[in-house]
Amino acid sequence: MEDFLIIQLAVVGFFLYINCLMIFTFLKKEAFRTDTRYILFSQTLFPDSGLIFLGNLALVLVYYQVAIYFVFCCLLSVIMSLFSIVSPLALVAMCLERYVAICMPLRHADISTPRTRNMGLLIMWLIGSVIPTYILFVSLLSMPSKMLLAYVVCSVDVLFVESWQNLLRSTLFQMYFLVMFGIILFTYVKIMKAARAASSENKKSTNKGLRTVLLHAFQLLLSLLRFICPYVESSLLHIDMLLYLKVRYSNFMLFIIAPRCLSPLIYGLRDEKFSVVLRNYVFFGHYTFVSNLGMNGRPE
């Protein structure tokens, strides 16, 4: 199992480095900070990076059976739940933004304004806060006060006294992801129709938007499959402990880490403007390019 842990730490470290570079690129360039498309992209980068780091920390604590205060475990689980919901919601918002840009180009400028963008971000975070708030109240209200300072090996399962509480949490998660998957499917169908009707000049941009939406649907599908994992893991727990641990680590990498690592590849590296500026920062300003983002072959 040590080998699994080393591979996991290496993969997590690599993608955290990539995400930090992209966050730095977003924050340094004003053109990105004022564009709805890139602002929504940042709403996946920040929570994804936080979830990768905290999820990896929680897994290491469980692996080494390190006990922490119950109240700290509660806060850790709440923050991870918030990040795990907000990032897919941002993906849905990105798909809707592409839908408006491609299918309603004349209305895009009127819809994508700073006011509507800020309202959308507020609504997105409020929706994302429903399940974490439920976890916080259920865990704190159902536990005796003396348990708050008790030491536990942190897992979301220890936060719930009754089985129905955890079941309700899982059901809410599944409803969230099914609704989000349905919205992304809707945008894909609409953009596909627009791609068929588009002229040769607009077809390239439309097809690129279509591929982006499809990749986001794949991300959400991986996240949705995560909710099958506890049932598979619980059945293996009574058969072979070593196999159970291996499957649990594999599920963590496939259904928690992998979807969060796809966003930089989908938007950050495939987007021409963003990738050009990113490469310039990676090579410490020695990557020369021609771009309308800045003058003298360098970004502003």
Automatic annotation (TrEMBL):
The keyword Transmembrane helix applies. Residues 18-267 form the G-protein coupled receptors family 1 profile domain. It is found in: Membrane. InterPro entries: GPCR1_Superfamily_Member, GPCR_Rhodpsn, GPCR_Rhodpsn_7TM. Pfam families: 7tm_1. GO terms for molecular function: G protein-coupled receptor activity; odorant binding; olfactory receptor activity. Its main location: membrane. The chain crosses the membrane at residues 6-27, 67-100, 121-141, 173-192, 213-232, 252-269. Keywords: Membrane, Transmembrane, Transmembrane helix. One of its GO terms (cellular component) is membrane. This is G-protein coupled receptors family 1 profile domain-containing protein. It comes from Denticeps clupeoides.
